[in-house]
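Changelog-adjacent note: as of this version, every example in the card shows the full chain rather than a window. The one below runs 317 residues end to end.
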Amino acid sequence: MTKQRIVISSLLFIFILTTCSFSYITFSKLTSKTEDIKNIKTIKAKPKLLLSTTGIQAPLNSYIFYYTPTLGQLQKLLVKNHSKVSKNTPVLEYYNYEKDHLYEELQNTLSNERNNKTLNSKNDLHYYSFLNQLKLQMIQTKSSIKSTLFSPINGSISYINSIPSKPNEKIVQINSNERIIRANISESELNLLKINQNISVTSSDNTQFTSKIKEISNIPSKIKNGVSYYDILLSTQPNHQIGTHFKIKLASNDIELPTSAIVQKRYVLILKNGKITKREVTYKKSLKSGYINITKGLLIDEKVVKNPTSKLINIYI
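Full-length structure tokens:
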């Protein structure tokens, strides 16, 4: 009986020891995995960025009236501030007092000539030539006494300076109702864009929308450090004010990752909901040193282990 108890006790001890050892090993592995997950560095899967620039909301067309003293004094503005006008609408009026005074003098000269000449002298050819020149000068002078300038486009009126004092001061600007985004790109980026191509735009208030390329200039607008830059026009949303700034980005369908994220030339490790799983991917070389372009197997914003350790590889691959 005593022997039987000893045997049973020994077996029970061995069972307890084995169970504890197994539990410890399992717990250690779980703890090790948890610690590994907490300490690993990940990178979010993002599309490869092909182009990045900035743009500004602007009217498609605009026209500025400048103060021109040779036309006379600015007599009055014929349209209200912020009003809408059509093409050929009268916008402002000049009055030239010098021309007005000259016209009066020419009238007096003509009257005096008619009164002072005898009947015989009036038949003189030279006299009639003089009168004709005088009349022509009067017509030209009279037409330049009052000058009315008209709007060359449809749009909205914006007063800039209604009482100008210096030549070429801005008086009024007319902005067309149609809005666009103006931006520019470098010569190396020209081949990335084409008319009606979609491109991502984000406003200063983080409103994001898809725009379309409307126009690409083939003449550089500036040259800086030996690089030519070209103006482009993009479609926009009309609710944004003129002057609103935008971030403009063009991304490819590929996802760019560092080569260190690839395991065994075909896998990446994904961290999701606190768990790591392996994922087979297809990729190609990137022009950017130390990177590859994932063409298949990853979703945008998935978390990829940036530098898998040999320990992680042994556990999950």
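Structural remarks: The longest strand covers residues 245-258.
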